[in-house]
Amino acid sequence: xxxxxxxxxxxxxxxxxxxxxxxxxxxxxxxxxxxxxxxxxxxxxxxxxxxxxxxxxxxxxxxxxxxxxxxxxxxxxxxxxxxxxxxxxxxxxxxxxxxxxxxxx
Length: 105
What we know:
Blueprint: E1 2-10, H1 15-32, E2 35-40, E3 49-56, H2 59-71, H3 73-85, E4 88-96
């Protein structure tokens, strides 16, 4: 299992558009095969930094998931929404694997 961390730099005047975008992914991402942890919008501190986080089985599974997401009606609509509204200034993906577990007791 790997975790995809998407770091977004957003237009701070369009935070509501990012929140709409995030809610749409909350429906489309799980339907297309990834385990969505969540989308996180600015609250305190930086007004431009936001994150999306989800788990996926492997990089090969990621490629198949991205194809399903691009073909999904809500996925396509959400990509177009982001292009039209221009609230995403930068988007970076990093894939990490969990190497520790919480100590119990």
